[in-house]
Amino acid sequence: MTSTFPDISISTDRLVLRPFEAEDIPALAEMMGDELVTAWTSAPHPYTTAHARDWALREAPAERTQGRGIVFAVTEFLTHRLVGCVHLHHTDWRTLSAEIGYVVAPWARGEGYACESVLAVAEWLFRDQRFERLELRTAADNTASQQVAQKIGCISEGVLRNAWIARSRTEDGGWTEIRTDLIVWSLLPEDLDEALEQHTGGTDYAGAFPDWR
């Protein structure tokens, strides 16, 4: 089996998931500089245009070409506006498993885009790439992301104690790093089939997942 993912785009009813382009850099920098992104991800802070350019044009493409995973810019089908990012990483080509991470831009929250994009990537990963496991890890206090994991059919497998460093606001308005637990979730092909059945027939993604961060 190939050790790299194909260079593709994925479409849903509302979204197009595609490789990052130079035109995405300003919106990417703004998205990654958001407070919730700073709190729950390991993205550099402050996140600059230089960081965005390096990610979009060098680091993200290298994830695919070097076999580590694949990165999708999530854009609205009608407006072409950048609304998020989905990242498959820690890919194991022997066990056919990967870990998924995702971010939704602050201007696009409340629309259910996290659920829609993750389900689309999972369906492609399982059906087209024949993978057998998708893993998701959420910080213990990131309840909004945990709700998405539950709603898309993930199964909680346990807790990695003291395994993550999040960021928290200080009294003077700065940031401090704090250690926290990680909850491990998994999605298997049979879990995805059940999740897709639940969302067949016009389910409102935004109504189902209003609190995703």
From TrEMBL:
UniProt keyword annotations, A-Z: Transferase
Gene3D superfamilies listed in its UniProt record? 3.40.630.30
User: Sorted alphabetically, which InterPro entries does this protein's record hold?
Assistant: Acyl_CoA_acyltransferase, GNAT_dom, Ribosomal_N-acetyltransferase
One MF term in the entry's GO annotations: protein-N-terminal-alanine acetyltransferase activity
Q: Which GO terms describe its cellular component?
A: cytoplasm
Domain N-acetyltransferase, by residue range, is 15-172
Q: Name one Pfam family in it.
A: Acetyltransf_3
Against CDD domains, the record matches this protein to: NAT_SF (cd04301)
> Could you tell me the superkingdom of the organism this chain comes from?
Bacteria
Q: What is this protein called?
A: GNAT family N-acetyltransferase
